[in-house]
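#struct-pred

JT: dropping the chains for the assembly here, can someone run the whole complex?
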Amino acid sequence: MTFTERLRQIQQTCNSLLCIGLDPVLDKIPSHLQKTGDPIVEFNKHIIESTSDIVCAYKFNLAFYEVMGPAGIEALEDSLDLVPQDILTIGDGKRNDIGNSAERYAEMLFEGFEFDAATVNPYMGTDSVEPFIKYPGKGAFILALTSNPGAKDFQKLKIGDRYLYEKVVQRAKKWNTGNNIGLVVGATQSRELAGIRKLASDMPILLPGIGAQGGDLKKSIEHGCTRKKDLLLINVGRSIIYANNVRDTALEVHAMINTYRNV
Amino acid sequence: MTFTERLRQIQQTCNSLLCIGLDPVLDKIPSHLQKTGDPIVEFNKHIIESTSDIVCAYKFNLAFYEVMGPAGIEALEDSLDLVPQDILTIGDGKRNDIGNSAERYAEMLFEGFEFDAATVNPYMGTDSVEPFIKYPGKGAFILALTSNPGAKDFQKLKIGDRYLYEKVVQRAKKWNTGNNIGLVVGATQSRELAGIRKLASDMPILLPGIGAQGGDLKKSIEHGCTRKKDLLLINVGRSIIYANNVRDTALEVHAMINTYRNV
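RK: done, full complex below.
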């Protein structure tokens, strides 16, 4: 089964487009968990147990684990073991390098951690992306238009009649012969999302930037899911994982997403 | 002292522009070292001991360590401890993320591993680069024009009368108020290197792609060091670290570099 088919299947089965970003920072973790032997893993365990019936994926931003050294890598491995088998895991590392090095990153992500998908920075072009897309069943989400202010600096530069991010989308479509490539589009860019959805109608879009970053959920769904079959993966991180009641907040977000989808 | 000043000082002291890329692959390591308890660290130790009097820096590509899991991170830490104090270390991770996440990467690289410099992918713009440039004395090498074939896919797209990589160089110059930013330019791009050197006359350029990737050393120095004071950091990896005689090969490369510099 291709990654895109896997994503469609899990989204249908669990009736959810929600992906939760598990990017824990030690000093933001509830104090009773900080006293345990492995606070990061305990924290993730709590989030996963509270939400695994209403999400289709968990996204792990590698920066938050790598900053803790070897212990952080172990915490990431242990956290991944807690994710139920049918739910997808995304290794959000935004890696990119020449082919020879990119192969190591792909091996780390897909064979080491056994992530189902990874985020990939496109700046270095085709041969730097290829190692990530040659794993059958695994997905590569290519950064197209990101959620941060700096997205305008290069991604929105005009090349002829197209923006750079549209050139990336066009190229990603060409790369997508294995039906395993998606795009990262920030939820803060909901106007541009409509254009990207038109350009790449059959590709999954991973949408970060809801919540702490101020992205508009309703507009994002309106523009990213124009047809019932459009694949959108909505990542919510800080506003769920640090909520007073994780399950209630996740349920609320899940319900909101499904309300907007069905309008 | 700014990073650029530090680089100038060490290059003068050791009379060398040579940076060796310590990117070991287990099955390419000599068999007698494979039998030791910590083959990667033993291998790096051998390279460092054979070359530390003729290099100004060692570059560690994180992909090669991360692929080995927590043990790889420990091997990287142990290898860094073997580098003499006055020689610069570069964490080649090509990281880039939104500010909040990029801060973790910068912390990992500059406080965790204590690298002197890091490579940074510019695709996500200003706020994604800022966390890497706010460390006094540490350097950030921004990917401008890379050595791989895919460099043409996006980096060589034309924006008005400039290529994307030139836009990146112009932006990097603006970011460089702390005199701690450099550029990565592949040695396979020696023609374009001349133009980049003109655009960014006072910035250090890290030049990978010599040796296994086919870059031209003579032309690279001709175009990258047009004035005596131009800062060029020439990375050589596989062709030195896997040489039959590491020291002799490194000496040869070092001598060639200095011959071409002094023409």
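JT: nice. The CA atoms of residues 23 and 64 of chain A lie 6 Å apart. Strands of chain A lie at 18-21, 57-61, 88-95, 117-120, 139-145, 158-159, 162-163, 181-185, 205-210, 232-236.
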